[in-house]
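ugh ok so i messed up the first submission bc i forgot one of the chains. this is the corrected input, ALL of the components this time, i swear. 838 residues overall. if the numbers dont match what u have on ur side tell me asap before i send this to the collaborators (the ones from the other lab, u know who)
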Amino acid sequence: MTTTWTPGALAERSAALDDADPLAPLRERFLLPEGFVYLDGNSLGALPAAVPPVVADVVHRQWGADLIRSWNDNAWWQAPERVGDAVGRLIGAAPGQTLAGDSTSVQLFNALTAAARSRPGRPLLLTDPANFPTDQYITDSVARLLGLEVRRVPVAELPLFLAREGERVAVAGYSPVDYRTGELYDLAVTTRAVRRAGALMLWDLSHAAGAMPIEVDELGVDFAVGCGYKYLSGGPGAPAYLYVARRHQEGFDQPLTGWNGHADPFALSGGYTPAEGVGRGRIGTPPVLSLLTLEAALSVFDGVDLALVRAKSLSLTGFLLECADTLLSGLGFTVVTPREPARRGSQAVLRHPEAHALAAALTERGVVGDVRAPDLLRFGVNALYVSHRDILAAVCHLREATELGEYRQQRFRRRATVT
Amino acid sequence: MTTTWTPGALAERSAALDDADPLAPLRERFLLPEGFVYLDGNSLGALPAAVPPVVADVVHRQWGADLIRSWNDNAWWQAPERVGDAVGRLIGAAPGQTLAGDSTSVQLFNALTAAARSRPGRPLLLTDPANFPTDQYITDSVARLLGLEVRRVPVAELPLFLAREGERVAVAGYSPVDYRTGELYDLAVTTRAVRRAGALMLWDLSHAAGAMPIEVDELGVDFAVGCGYKYLSGGPGAPAYLYVARRHQEGFDQPLTGWNGHADPFALSGGYTPAEGVGRGRIGTPPVLSLLTLEAALSVFDGVDLALVRAKSLSLTGFLLECADTLLSGLGFTVVTPREPARRGSQAVLRHPEAHALAAALTERGVVGDVRAPDLLRFGVNALYVSHRDILAAVCHLREATELGEYRQQRFRRRATVT
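and heres the new structure output, hopefully the right one now
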């Protein structure tokens, strides 16, 4: 289905949509470079204005002046739980169930191992063959260590698979948004199907948290992990998070038994006794600078209704698809992201054989999206700082770059962008 | 053995030692608070002056302005190897064998598992019953996952144990410095004994790196890990490091198979193919802010001869013991740290029944050391910024605080200091 909007009408429409946008003032919470359209916030979120003063304080006063006393006096020791709770508010987790720290890969390893250990006699770990690579690699590694098998089952086929072999499944580890296509799956349906089979549901929320309301408690999710640097805008390589539903905390039997997760870490005992509550998920000493940066960044969500964020995100990606239909027609692009709002995450993805070179040409023009091999142009929208005018500008540039054949001047290069 | 120095003579001696100290100018490389004696750099190193401008640049320019392009343009992607090599220079590792990232606990888990996997048929993992808790917990966890057994063998008894059961040992994981007593063990003797048995030597260098010359390549060490926030002064919870001797890299079969360690991470393949070289030890996306802070901090070692650092460190701890002998005589203190220089790390430790309260009283007086349960007062010296005058001042304050009974006013509290 293509629309009949003309370029002029699209310009008017983008302006009207922006003028009516209740979230437009949130853009001021970010320090965005001038003259730049940033559609890669699903890879690295933009810099929140609240971050620099906090970082300066952490470096100069907390580290430089207060030194070791900051573990108490500036509450560094409590940061993993405190920042975890701040993430928890965005994913529908009541306090005391979410921790911040380490990378998504590490949190996934810990959670998946602990989850599988709590379902003895069930030999299967499930993951999506389209899941983000680290999720697949870590699942394979955990299976090898625990003597389990991995089955790669697409999320759409999950109900059927579970009906057949559900009682052999220990844990199903899935991502609600396909990081390449932007397709959004139904968290509620999937979670119900997995739990009905007596298996445990683990979600990797990296591409969803902060972009839409998520209700892990309400849905009965067992475990969740996710990264801090996409829609949470926590900075490059920001600490990840781990959600352990309260009912699983007492039995959370993790392999990464670092001393910070000990019931009495400063007793410095030679044997591991895990802490009560989600604190037992802590591993080693966390990177405080990065962790407190994430905390400062999360203040961009203060007072923000995630339902409005989701509505605007859909408006932005929907508008991008409309613009593509109108402006890119006949230029070799295919829309990959589902058009139905309920099936769309917070990115719009176009397929084009020159995707890499076009992304490079766009960057030259001040429009930053990214590419996923082999031929996907990915445009992520963070509704807190992206406008409909940005979207139109991006598609106009893409049209010009394609029409002018600019991609022919761009040497093919694989950019080291981090999803 | 007590000395006959009088307080006045000690003051003269401290001044003379400082005046003759070739490393004295290095203190300017740190931003130390005024009127403060900081003897807890073995727990959290002081703030290097090179850090704040780098952090500001990383936040404002690299993250804020360059955004996602920084993974290439500001070489974020290469940071784990680059910062790893900078650490490698301090531990005698030729380039390409050291990585920075994650916490010591995580690096230890990865290294120990990979090491044990490369010695099939050998059922034992050895560690010291006095090793830092996380080392013991992680060793237990790895043994459980791999179906191995842990034997806690004090380093002094290691040669005898290896003579008896050496061929059953897969990996020996030890720390060269006892984090409580400050005792230093002989890395060369221990490494030789372990390797002669056909086992693998893994050192946790947290309490040694940056405080003395270490030669992992020359000694034939197999693996090493360590933290970045003690003598490396990399900031609170700074990323740790992992050393994998080149001969072990091809077989390094790690459990934390995050996508950053993949041979071609941006091919985003569903199956894990490890990178060549030490890069395969990478796990998830690293906390860039903390990592580049560590990199900036390591510049404090530029042009510094670690043999001089070691000599000064011994002079400082030796002087502390002398001061204690003279000034604390009859006040209930016992010297715990070995007096022989070759057996002394970079801290001096005194036992006192009121250790906790005395440490609190000292902090009130502007002297910061720390305490290890139940009764050890620990004074760490970083020879790059601690002076002999600092040492004398600390011991004088300790004497006064004890004589005046100030510890009675200090409520007992266990401080959340991080070793």
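quick check: Confidence is low (pLDDT under 50) at residues 411-419 of chain A. that seems consistent at least. Chain A touches chain B through 89 residues (CB under 8 Å).
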